[in-house]
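Reopening this one. Same input as before:
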Amino acid sequence: MALFPVISNFQYDFVLQLVPVDTENTMDEVAAAAAHHSVGRRVAPQLDKVVRVRRQGDSEFFPRTAKLSETPIKPMETLEFIFAEE
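Same output, byte for byte:
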C-alpha cells in the first residue's frame, strides 16, 4: 500500500484536481475519490450511471475491479473519469 497521486479530469468539470489514492485501490475506489472532489460541487450527480476510469486520450476503460497497482498508470498521470452505463 502506497500513496499515489493522480490528476483527475472529471467529465463536465472545468477544474483538474490532484487526487491522492492508494496503489491497492480498485478503479471504482479511484473513481469515488475523484468524484468526491467534483460531483456535487461543479458536476451534477448522475445516480443512474457509474464513473469509469481511463487514461487521458484512451478510448478503453480500465476494468472496475482492477487495482491501481495492476495497471500501467504512473504517478501524476492524468486520468479521465467518465459517467457510463454499468
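So the earlier flakiness isn't reproducible anymore. For the record, Helices lie at 27-38.
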